[in-house]
Every structure is written in C-alpha cells, then in structure tokens.
Amino acid sequence: MEKIKCLIIGSGPAGFTAAIYAARADLQPIVYEGIEAGGQLTTTTDIDNFPGYPEGVNGRTLMDDLRRQAERFGTVVRAGIITDVDTSSRPFRVTADNEHLFEAETIIVATGASAKYLGLPSEQHFRGMGVSACATCDGFFYRKQDVAVVGGGDTACEEATYLASICRKVYLIVRKPYLRASKAMQERVAAMSNIEVLFEHNTVEVLGDDDGVTGVRVRNGEGKEYDIDIAGFFLAIGHHPNTELFAGKLEMDEAGYIITAPDSSRTSVEGIFAAGDCRDSHYRQAIVAAGSGCIAALDCERFLAAQKAKQ
Ligand code: NDP
Can 300 be counted among the known catalytic residues? Predict the structure, then answer.
C-alpha cells in the first residue's frame, strides 16, 4: 500500500503554502485538490490585498503561481477527493475517490469553506439555471441583463460591483437596514449608478420557467411582497467550513470549524493539522490562510522529527 509522509487535503492558499514549506523540508507532500481546484480565490476577481502584487492579481493567476511554486520543490498534486480518513490509529488509513486506499503519516487539512445558500426549494431548483454563488464564474452569462445579489457583506458588495460593470441593472437584496461591508466596499457600490440597494428585503422565492430564472419575489420591511424581473440570482451570504469528512473525528466548534491548539495548527488528533478557512471563521483572508498553511507545515515537520527521535 502507498505510504505518504505528508498528505495535504485542499488546494487553496493554505494547502499550497503548506505544500511549499513541506516540500522544501523534504516531507514529499501529496496535495489532493478537492472539488474546487485552487479553492475560493479562483472564483474571485482581482485581489488587491495579497502582499507582493502592487498592481493586484487575478485569483486564478495567484493560485496557479502558488501551485507552480509548490511543484517546483517536488509537491505532487493529484486531482481527486479524499472520501474517508480513519483517524483511530497512525499511520492514518485514507481513501481517495472512494477507491484508492493509502496510508498517511501526517495530514494537513486545508479544505476551506464553501458558499451558503438560502435554502429555498426554488433556489435549489434553479441552481445552475440562473442561481449562482459566484458572480465571477457566471456573471458573463447575464451581460446586459438585470440580476440580483443577496447579502450585505464585502462579498455581496464585490459581486454586485463586478456584475454592475457587465449587467444592465443589479439589485442588492440586504436583509438589514444597513450594509455590513467595509466602508471602501460600500463606497464602490454607491459609485455604481446601476446598483439599487433594497434594504430590509428578504427573498421569498426565485421565479422561473423551463429556461431558467425570470425573477425573484421579495418581501420588504413592511411585509409587502412584490416581484422583480431578473435573469440571474447570486448568493453572497457567507460560507460554511468544508469539514464534513472529519465530523465526529476532529474537535470542531458548533459551526463546524476545526479547533486547533492556541498558536498552533494541531488538532485534537496527533499528527493531523488544520490550516486556512476550515479552522478560521474570523479572518477568512487568503494571506491569513497562506500564513496558517506555513504554520501547519512547520508543525508537521517538527512532529515527524520528534517521532523519528523517539524511534
Ligand atoms: P459576511 O458573513 O461578512 O456577510 C454575509 C452577509 O450575508 C451579511 O450581510 C448577512 O446579513 C447576509 N446574510 C447571511 N445569511 C443571510 C440570509 N439567510 N438571508 C439574507 N442575508 C443573509 O460574509 P462575506 O462573504 O461577505 O465576507 C466574509 C469575510 O471575507 C469577511 O471578513 C469579509 O470582510 C471578507 N471579504 C473581504 C473582501 C475584500 O476585502 N476584498 C472581499 C470579500 C470578503 P447580516 O448582516 O444581516 O448578518
């Protein structure tokens, strides 16, 4: 059976930064990319706050750069999903894609987080047919048409601004009487004349036909319901951690974020480390995820060295 010294699950900034450090420390890391290769950054537009890019960088480019940097030192990147991990004994018995079994001496969990949906049946029905959680990926399909974005945070404002540059009109549906987004983001929204912010509005139903979304029914602060004609409905209401694989196996908080020891990436199971958004409900920034990937690789290296010294 294949034996892996350092398995890294996830291919976002945390996973690839961990891989760079692990590869340079000769841990021969294997990265399993997961469902969304490159992670959430591949679905964003330009990133202006990642250090080292004075002119900003496209999310996909940044992830390609990180991947190439990890590969330069010998990281092996595999397309595939880890479907089971037996955490009861070390080395850990791991299953990839429900069929490939191997053993891992250490694991760095960098599985990130995913977009949340409202949970409306009509929203599910029209997913991929006008309902999307990624304006950068799907905005193109609604060029010169009217669309709506749900949410009042930085993501919602960023998505609305992006869509406003290609669509005719953007409705920003915000449940509170104010935006939670940073001042800079709010100013960007205010500067776009084709964004209409609907404060104290909730989505009742996504409307459509066989061809996809045609509108959305909203309820305003007075409880009055009315319909808006749109072709695209975008969710930007936050994220949940992708940690289901470790449910009941690693200690987590009530929202499912993996708990790590203070100032460390150590999880509740010796030999398993966590990095990035799967353990961070607070900062959720690419640079923070990258930093925590570095920490996880250093912790992993020290753990393996200590194990070797015991032998
Ligand atoms: P947030 O959690 O910050 O915001 C989520 C928004 O969705 C809130 O306005 C919330 O409303 C709303 N919401 C949540 N659930 C529902 C629901 N069921 N119905 C309607 N509205 C709902 O998530 P973001 O993804 O916006 O941001 C996450 C983190 O990433 C933040 O720290 C943010 O600063 C950061 N970020 C930074 C960017 C940048 O600097 N370029 C870009 C994007 C994100 P309410 O306010 O009522 O809770």
Answer: no
